[in-house]
Amino acid sequence: MAQEIRTLTAHDLFRIPDDGYHRYELVEGRLLTMTPAGGRHGVIVGRLHVALGAHVEQAHLGVVLSADTGFKLESGPDTVRAPDVAFVARERISRGGIPEAFWQGAPDLAVEVLSPSDRRRDMEQKIAQYLRLGVKEVWFVDPAARRFTIYQPHESPRVLDESDTLESAELLPGFQYPLARLFTFDV
To answer: Which residues sit opposite 150 in a β-bridge?
Structure first.
């Protein structure tokens, strides 16, 4: 006898109680459970969030959102993704302000940091999905390789290493961040 798999909605996902351990995403109605990431992942996400947040706030460019923010990218079946860091440009924020529930639509920038439990193939599929569904730029960080890749729709990926300075002139005018700082883990 075939077992029926229930398809969840974004509304169902929003109502899942916080267990204090996991984050969830919804991909075409299927619930994905994500375990907490390691220390290096947290340091990299934190550094990027602080640097982006300071620049975006100072230049009044929009909002920077943390990994707890879900973006409803598709409906019927629903897909809700939660990038490690996201940016939404000011002109895309509705007159009603920041939504209480999931953000409707894609962020302008999605940042994903590879954690030890992530599979590269899954991450590649997520990046392709982001680009297909309206994200203007995806930053993918591989801490072990000390590599930073910038993806944009219909463009070849740009690969940076720790000797480079991160810039995003179109999305974040004036933003510069030396990647050597991102990949330094001594205190």
So the answer is: 139, 158
